[in-house]
Amino acid sequence: MSATAVDIAADVRAGRRSALDVVEVALAAIAARDGELNAFNTVTADQARAAAAGIDARVVAGEDVGPLAGVPVALKDNLCTRGVPTTCSSKILAGWKPPYDATVVGRLLAAGAIMVGKTNLDEFAMGSSTENSAFGPTRNPHDPTKVPGGSSGGSAAAVAAGFVPLSLGSDTGGSIRQPAALCGVVGLKPTYGRVSRYGLVAFASSLDQIGPFAATVADAAACYDAIAGWDAFDSTSIPEPLEPTSAALGRGVQGLRVGVVSEMTSDAMGIAPDVLARVREAADALAAAGATVTEVSIPACVYGLSAYYLIAPAEASSNLARFDGVRFGLRVDAPTTAEMQRATRTAGFGPEVKRRIMLGTYALSAGYYDAYYGKAQRVRRLILEDFERAYGEVDVLLSPTSPTTAFPLGAKTTDPLTMYLNDVCTIPSNLAGHPALSVPFGTGSDGLPVGVQLMGPALSEALLFQVGAVLEASRS
Hints:
Layout: H1 5-14, H2 19-37, E1 40-43, H3 45-60, E2 72-76, H4 103-110, E3 114-119, H5 153-160, E4 166-170, H6 177-183, E5 186-189, E6 210-214, H7 217-227, E7 257-261, H8 273-288, E8 292-296, H9 304-319, H10 337-348, H11 351-364, H12 370-390, E9 396-400, H13 416-420, H14 427-432, E10 436-443, E11 449-455, H15 461-474
Parallel strand pairs: 2-3, 2-4, 7-8, 7-9
Antiparallel strand pairs: 1-3, 4-6, 5-6, 5-10, 9-11, 10-11
Helix pairs in contact: 2-3, 7-15, 9-11, 9-12
């Protein structure tokens, strides 16, 4: 879909274009190519047409239909949607249809957006390639032999393929930003607590955050403005009033201080030379636009991967205990309750989910809690303190988003550690709870997209969009 979300909404509100026509274009694009890419688990065609017809009727009646009027959106399939299957790409949730919408879903619909389907993901959002799905892998629209990144690979691919101008993903350790980089789209992980998690099927509750994918920075800002803000249903929601971020897009970077993170551009992090070259070019572009660019150190971020893969699995092992064959989803009958639960979880969970449950259970077990989980939480605090120290020197940080461009399907599935290293640059922001934005910035030596990452202190989303718009303009 070549038109931007901002343009579509303006045309629908003005009556220059019908929402139904826009939806038909999106559904036709999905029908034409999703058999190859497998970005969607469910396509809600009839529901989308009915919603579009309702918006068109409201436009004729002179009603305000919202800032995202008629914009087709795709939702990661771990976001609850009333009456629509929500599978988390897992066998264990087969047949489950939530009785309510996630807060972000309700806010998008209230803004006039139209859901066209639910997108594929690594099972329960655990992965970096969208290959750990009960529905098969998603493929990268730029090269279908390559992965789209993960865990929100379906949402990233849906935007990159032009199926929809906007989609939502969730980001626990990079699951929005890394696929955004590999698919050549914009992806935002907001400040923890800025976007409600109510209705998101939890992976790691202290790390999860919902955010947008978009083809442009302006579209990502418009989507963020629609979904962000306090929610009484989320106890971690930040009550501070939300200022629209779209107004910041034209401010430029004159006088801003940008820090290139030295640890994330070092050989030790395994950053590919072509990716590193794009980061240097992004720094030069910001300097040419009036920013002061320096190098900044975040020493503890090199321990982020180790801390994350103790904290996240520990929280996952607790959160996934609810899938027991009793209340919803898959049930494998057996003579006793314990046997039924064991059989259900054995059949229902895939290998990566089982791996993380076992790792998390071990990290929380008696005799190991302080040595592993407790120590990881102390490292998390060190990372936060290092970020806060850096933000005393600069306004925004710059780094690679992913160490490499998209890699071949199957290349890393047999080596979990190699797969986990894809999130080495994104995980620190999750541990700190700070916002981070991936912006497409050229291509690698293989012609595939490269994304650069902008990081800022808590509640600095408007600033990140401001800087991201300058990077975007420098490549146009």
